[in-house]
Design brief:
By secondary structure, the chain is of the alpha/beta class. It has 13 helices and eight strands. A six-stranded parallel β-sheet has the order 4-3-8-7-5-6, sandwiched between helices. A hairpin with a 2-residue loop joins strand 1 and strand 2. It is globular and about 50 Å long. The structure holds uridine-5'-diphosphate.
């Protein structure tokens, strides 16, 4: 089931269902493209037709933003569970270890992606990380980056280039990577590597992660103004 926010679709789903969809994609295809949607992306997609088309075409659009849940509740929608990008990323890695799926990490600074891979192996001993690469390559090298991923034989590809770069990479080069599950994960490698702390559990439980990030990185204020604008428009419009 799907609910739309300013005409941008978001799937009413759970982490468990998302893991099931990933298992099906690895076992029998077709490849599954997962996009984490938050209010900021919904607002951005109003002016960016490529981002909109990307979200529309994705196999799974997770609701990664408490603003979506608030808007849904205010207008009597069905979205009740948040599936955060980082939790699904870690959940997929946990499943990858169990099932023997291989993983490729693309994005962030070199020391960050290396530290993230190390931390994954520490938390999930035996996980098969078949390749990694930082996200500061020339755009003209993207084709080569995609073939390197294909050569690695990775089942799961996580791309942490930030938005909309990661969406552009996945749109243009995703198929060439031959990965079975592809997902943009924003700043998740920085969090996993311990470079950016996650909000305390109590704040997360209250849906106040955004406030914590704003306190840590006040320059995000411009981006966060998208939230009230989104709420007012999404609730007034009702779709
Ligand atoms: N990044 C990258 N290549 C670039 C620009 C950014 O790999 O050319 C990485 C950056 O190091 C960080 C992530 O992309 O790890 C962006 O994180 P952010 O929290 O800004 O993601 P967003 O909130 O935009 O999804």
């Amino acid at each position: 089931m799907t609910e739309t926010f300013l005409d941008i679709p978001v799937d009413v789903t759970t982490t468990e269902d998302a893991l099931g969809a990933a298992a099906a994609a690895v076992a029998e295809g077709p490849p599954l493209l997962i996009v984490a949607v938050n209010p900021e992306k919904v607002v951005k997609a109003q002016r960016d037709p490529e981002l909109r088309a990307f979200i529309e075409a994705a196999g799974l659009r997770i609701a990664d933003g408490v603003g979506l849940l608030v808007a849904s509740r205010l207008r009597g929608g069905r979205l009740r569970e948040r599936v955060t990008g980082i939790d699904l990323f870690l959940g997929l890695c946990g499943r990858a270890r169990q099932e023997g799926w291989s993983v490729y990490l693309l994005g962030a600074r070199s020391e960050v992606v290396h530290a993230a891979a190390q931390e994954l192996s520490r938390r999930l001993p035996g996980i098969s990380v078949v390749g990694l690469r930082d996200g500061y390559f020339a755009r003209s090298d993207a084709v080569e980056v995609a073939s390197e991923i294909a050569r690695s034989g990775a089942d799961l590809l996580f791309v942490a280039l930030g938005s909309p770069l990661q969406e552009a990479f996945l749109r243009q080069h995703g198929p060439a990577t031959r990965a079975r599950v592809l997902m943009g994960v924003g700043g998740s490698f920085d969090v996993l590597a311990g470079r950016v702390p996650r909000a305390p559990q109590a704040m997360r439980a209250l849906g106040l992660e955004w406030l914590y990030r704003l306190w840590r990185e006040p320059r995000r204020i411009g981006r966060m103004l998208a939230l009230p604008i989104f709420l007012v428009r999404a609730v007034l419009r009702g779709s």
